[in-house]
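Supplementary Text 2. Reproducibility record for the structural model of the 278-residue chain.

All settings were left at their defaults, and a single model was retained for analysis rather than an ensemble. We include the record here because the model underlies the residue-level annotations in Supplementary Table 4.
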Amino acid sequence: MQQPQNELGAFLRANRARTEPTDVGLPAGGGSRRVAGLRREEVAVLAGVSADYYARLEQGRERNPSPQVVDAVGRAMRLTPDARTHLFRLAGLHPALTSAAGRDLVHPSLLHLLDAFPGAAAYVLSPAFDVLAKNAVATALLAPFEGTPNMVRVLFQHPRAREVFVDWSVVARATVHALRLHAGRFPDDPAIGGLVSELSRAAPDFRRLWQENEVENLSRAYKVFVLPGAGRIELTYQTFDVHDAPGQQLLVGVPEPGSASALAIESLLAPAERGSGS
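Retained model, structure tokens:
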């Protein structure tokens, strides 16, 4: 599936369709609305531009919108900070990051840092969500997916994904929205482009979520794993950008101290510790 040429227009239409009139202080309109969300004319009024100008912006006929116009449109549709940043990139007003040869190389100091979280799952992801490095806890949690290092492929193609990830739909949606954000930041990244093309053809659930055209950083998350022999493991995740390798992210998932999840993690690590003689 080829990506649409007018990414800016597609993003604007998707967000306009999911913005309810009442969200922006307009009357609901009842049954008089033939389409979901806001009309083009309403966005134009809210943004302080002409209806013709906004229509040209959506249709890709306006190629050089000013920062002030893009900001006004983003505010008119109440876009989140992540979505507004993505909008600026699509409008060519925020420099896209170029691919770097070393983006998939994890710095030795970061590798050492992973082991500083002995009771937490810590791993490093590439912009395309390849697992570049992981500590012992993350290795144990992701063991059912050994041989599939890309987390997007795990979620949409691995037969055990919905068994291990109890809240699969929540995790899958958040991952696709973050991947689209990365696609805007790194438009020349062949790994992201190839992944999106592949899964758009092969995974209907991915295609549906990708077509939502939403963007959001991973930031904080709550994930529940269910693993044989360990049971239910609940973790709260925090995501950190790796500034010396733009696009890499460090994810750290921690259990509640003293909880059943913390004990389950200890049981996961016990066989490996016995095997090492410690």
